[in-house]
User: Fold this.
Amino acid sequence: QVQLVESGGGLVQAGGSLRLSCAASGRTAMGWFRQAPGKEREFVAAISVSGATTIYEDSVKDRFTISRDNAKNTVYLQMNSLKPEDTAIYYCNAGPTTYTIRTMKSTDFGSWGQGTQVTVSS
Assistant:
């Protein structure tokens, strides 16, 4: 059973940075998702088991970086140049591959953690 625990969110001004962490067990590809109020949960980024492959949603390319430390069972999302439209609850989850994670919907995953709130002010 995979236990998902997200942390690192907070309030930051536009242009600022945050690093999110996901404590998770299991050796699988991992992804980050986010959900803004009144909107569907959307894909943000994914990383392969080894960390060799990373993919990103277009709106966060060149601003966000996903990484992992398998010895610590932790996945990270470094977020730079934050914008108000990045405001959302951020979640992590696991899947077979990075590209599979990109296409999966929220209901395709077995379970979700509580997420961590990211709020970007203007």
About this structure: The mean pLDDT is 94. The chain has one helix and ten strands. The longest strand covers residues 88-95.
